[in-house]
Structure formats: structure tokens, C-alpha cells
Amino acid sequence: MTEPTHIARGKRVVVAAAVEQHGHLLSARRTRPASLAGGWELPGGKVEPGEDPARALVRELREELAIDTVVVGQVAGPVDGDWPLSDDSVLRVMRVRIERGAPQPGVAHDQVRWLGPREVGEVAWLGPDLAPAAAAILRLDTWVDFPSGALEGHGVVTFVAPLPDGRAAVVLDRTPFHPIDHGWPDQPGDTGFLGGARVHDTLTGVLDDASRLVAGEAVPLRRGDPRGAWVVVHVVDPEHAPDPGARVALSVDAERRAAFSRGHSGCHLASLALNEATARFWAKPSRRRDSRGFPMLDQMTISLSRIRPDGAFDTYRCGTSLRKAGFDAPAFLVERDVVAEEVNSLLAGWVARRSPSRIDSGGDPTLAARRQWWCDLPGGPAQIPCGGTHVSDLGQLGAVRVAYGITEQGFESTTSVG
Ligand SMILES: [Zn+2]
């Protein structure tokens, strides 16, 4: 006979939540019973007979903290996946995301607090909750500082593993290193130093609930998928890999980063100028428009983008769907050199304004954030979803020029900066 779901190996299951949001873990201070009052916990509660543990947790979080949540995984403990609680019960800690609401203390708690990666020790945890809380915080998404342009920092090593190519992957709680995106690998990963170790490359990685790391092209999920922890993977020689728990200094190769930032900003500006200069080739009003109101030829046709030091190379596919949408590709291709001169003239005017350029992470400091590049341009602000790095003002670009060439699929664009 199998045990009911609220019993595990003869012990009653108590459920608790590792509520993750924007790189923080939720803690709550109990008001009752008197023996536990004032202690901090991962919120949760008892599983009723016949109740599914995950459903019980969602119910408890709604009752206790007024949040609607979804269970996305588990923080695995040492007792067949659970955590020791008492002689007759175990704690099952599930990873959850908030779908609606912000946690409000009710009757069971009088305070809630979000803890960042280095703040697990800042609340007085109830004994059984300390170890799972520490484990939950270790698997938060990496905090990234590259969106602000940072090149230096310190990180605490959370995870080290061998990579298939024999080198070592080092994951830290926080880093200024920019990783290449596995889904849209336009800007290469940073290089630099981690402690005394040379960082040869920086990849996007994902950790599953069993702490298996997958990095780079092999990552099977879209960035931000809540089933995994999204981590920055620093690639070092194995003999130089630091130990988990070590605090290390991080330093990105500044000149290389700056050259890619100039190339990336130039690439975005060129794409917006292309949209503006090709608006006249649309036979009917396009529904898909960029942040400045022009038909988004770039985003509708781009098939590959490679950011280079002080430049970029992009390829575009002009298929039947583009023709049906109303774009006259043959006419554009005939006039491509004229369009390039129009684009270059727009770019010269924009660069001359030395407008500030920045990344908006929407208040999420982690690698999983949905980031946007912003720049104030004549005729409307530039706003493009972007995972890369950029100059802080367009004056750093000097000049941006494009040239277009015809390909079998459509056309290609070469952008050069400086
Ligand atoms: Zn970008």
C-alpha cells in the first residue's frame, strides 16, 4: 500500500516555500505559537490529509500572505529530498514564484523581508529553516552588474563544476561579467580575471533542482524560465578554480568590453536608422513598429547578428511574409547605397547629440531580467530589448557608418564605429 501524499516514510509532511523574486528570497516572522514567535521562517504550513503538498503550499501562501503563487521546483534536502524537522515530521521546501500580489503579513506573521544573496544571516531563522533557506539562497539567479557598465566587483563562489571541454565553470552570487546569451548569441562573453584565474569566456548557464549545470548552447530553456536558476558561468582552467564559499575579486578586460559596447550601441542605432530610412518602401501601413514609430524592418527580417569590436555584422532574410506585409524588398535592394547614405546621415546627427544611453533592468538585478536599451533620439526614444552592454553616451562612438550588400536570402549590413 502506498502512503498518502501528506506522509513521507511514515512522517508527516510540512511544506514550506522558497519564494523567489528578482534575485531575492522571502522570509517571514512568526507570531504564533508563543514558542516560535519572533523567529523567521520560510512560510508554509501543514498538509491536510488527502491534500497534495504543492496545493497545500499554494493554499497556505494565499491564506497567510495574500499571494497567488505557482510551484516551480524544489530545494532538495538530505532526507530523500526533504529536510529534517522533528521526530514525526519532515519539511518539504518548494521553490515558488508569485503570480499575483505582494506578500502582506496576516495573522501568522507580523513582518516579511526579502533577502538578497548575502543576507541569509540577517534574520534569526527558526532552527529547521536555516539550512533550507541557505540552500535556497545559493540557487538564486546570479546578480549582474554589467547593465550599469561595471567592470569590477567581488563575488562569493556558489558553485564549481567541470565543463564538457575539460575547463571549469565558476558561478558566483554576483558578477560584473557579461555572458554570451545562448538564445541570441550576438555579443561575446567578457574575459578578465576572477581572483588569480584568467576568465577565458563567460557563458549563460542554468542550474536544475538537482544542481546539474548546463552552460552555453546546450541550455534547453529560454532565459528566465523559472524552472532553472539562471547563472553566469565564468570559464577558467580547472587548476585555478576557486573553492565554493570563497570571496574573490572580479575584473573584466576593460578595453575589450568597451570595444564591444561601442559595437553594440552602433548596431542598435543602425537598426533604428534602417527602419526610418526604409519606411518609404512599405506599400501599406505596417502594424509592427519600433519605439520611434517606424515599421520594424530590422526586427522582422534579422536572421543573425554578430557584435564585433567597434562594429557589427547582421544578416536579413526577405521572404514571402515580408512581401505580403507590404515591403518592397527589390526596390530597396536596388537603392541600397542611397539608403545607406540616408542611414549614415541619420547616424551622424544622432551621434553628434551625445545623448545618454543606458540599460533598464526593470528593478530586477539578476541575469534573468528582461532588459531594455534606452537612448533619447530625435523623433522618439530608442527602446530595444537587449541583453548586452552599451556606451553610456553616444559621444563615445565618434562615428557610425553602415554598408549594405545583397545576399541570396536578402541582404547584409556591416556597421563600423569610430
Ligand atoms: Zn542589443
Automatic annotation (TrEMBL):
Gene3D superfamilies: 2.40.30.130, Nucleoside Triphosphate Pyrophosphohydrolase, Threonyl-trna Synthetase, Chain A, domain 2. The keyword DNA damage applies. It catalyses: 8-oxo-dGTP + H2O = 8-oxo-dGMP + diphosphate + H(+). InterPro entries: MutT-like, Nudix_hydrolase, NUDIX_hydrolase-like_dom_sf, NUDIX_hydrolase_dom, Thr/Ala-tRNA-synth_IIc_edit. Transmembrane segments: none annotated. Its cofactor is Mg(2+). It is an enzyme of class 3 (hydrolase). PROSITE patterns: NUDIX. Pfam families: NUDIX. Residues 10-152 form the Nudix hydrolase domain. Keywords: DNA damage, DNA repair, DNA replication, Hydrolase, Magnesium, Metal-binding, Mutator protein. GO terms for biological process: DNA repair; DNA replication. Its EC number is 3.6.1.55. Belongs to the Nudix hydrolase family. This is 8-oxo-dGTP diphosphatase. It comes from freshwater metagenome.
